[in-house]
Design a protein that fits this description.
This protein is mainly alpha-helical. It has 13 helices and no strands.
Length: about 300
């Protein structure tokens, strides 16, 4: 009696072109946003944080509108699409960044980056509850690995901050900013379900967010000044063009193709890059725990990439 011939292993299907493009987009966004944590600190000083946010997203929205006109993208939205863009602007650009800038004035930027790594979790829960979208177990596993990896990588920063009342307030503000970003993603998805396209709807969302912040600033007596110093102007241009126009335009585009949960994993990839920037420009030093954390982050990314997409 002969033994049965073993079956050959089943080859996994190659990643689709859409997924590969999405991965590339995630990496570009991660590199850009990984450097914006440092750029934001260059904005804190003589200019009111709210005014800096208005200048940043006001310029970014203007550039996006001009780009839409140049490339003949349809800017007219329906009422439902405008309402979705309004919600996106309120949460993603007004609330989230107001609390982000306030948080960075209280705690180290690495701690804010660690807090934002929870965005993947919040997105998974929010889209499950509000939109009925299910996530595969591998997606949750990838999010867990990413969150643990970022916590390990940034552990020295977090422990060294000294969690006094000021630091606790900073972390609380960062959590509010992260939650607001998740709701901004939800309203971006709502706009998508109503047929809006990524770039025009993002332009409108930034414009709404800027307008709401400007009105709030005028009502509360914020002085809308600008610092002519080269450092401030340079960081403002970088945050507007790269951190807002390119990164957000790319982010909301790839989120429509690979899903908001995977796209939001950018928040888990940015802290390692932010720490590299800190090493290069601030003389920071990190040990083996940073390498271990980076391995966990990349392992989580691999799980999310390979996770099957589950809808309802």
């Amino acid at each position: 009696m002969t033994s049965p011939t073993p079956l050959p292993p089943v080859a996994r299907p190659p990643l689709s072109r859409t997924t590969l493009l999405g991965i590339g987009g995630v990496m570009i966004c991660a590199v850009i946003w990984g450097t914006t944590w440092y750029a934001i600190t260059l904005q804190l000083g003589t200019v009111a944080p709210l005014a800096s946010i208005v200048w940043r997203f006001g310029l970014a929205a203007s550039l996006l509108f001009v780009g839409c006109l140049v490339f003949r993208m349809k800017l007219r939205l329906t009422r439902a699409q405008h309402l979705a863009a309004l919600g996106q602007g309120l949460f993603a650009f007004s609330i989230s960044y107001s609390f982000t800038y306030a948080s960075e004035g209280l705690v180290a930027s690495a701690i804010v980056a660690v807090t934002f790594a929870s965005l993947t979790f919040i997105n998974l829960v929010l889209f499950r509850v509000a939109a009925g979208q299910k996530a595969a177990a591998a997606s949750w596993g990838g999010a867990v690995l990413g969150l643990v990896g970022v916590a390990v990588l940034s552990g020295g920063e977090v422990l060294g901050a000294g969690f006094d009342g000021r630091a606790a307030l900073g972390v609380g503000l960062a959590l509010i900013a992260t939650t607001a970003s998740a709701f901004g993603n939800f309203f971006a998805w709502k706009g998508q379900t109503h047929g809006s396209t990524a770039i025009p709807s993002t332009a409108w969302a930034m414009a709404y967010g800027t307008g709401l912040l400007a009105l709030y600033g005028l009502a509360t007596g914020v002085e809308f000044t600008i610092d002519p110093d080269l450092t401030y102007v340079g960081s403002l241009l970088y945050l507007s063009v790269f951190g807002s126009v390119i990164a957000f335009g790319l982010y909301f585009t790839i989120a429509r193709t690979i899903g908001y949960a995977m796209a939001s994993y950018i928040s888990a990839l940015t802290p390692p890059i932010a720490m590299l920037v800190s090493v290069l420009f601030e003389g920071a030093q990190f040990g083996w725990s940073a390498l271990a954390g980076l391995v966990l982050v990349l392992s989580g990314q691999a799980l999310l990439i390979r996770a099957p997409r589950v809808s309802t």
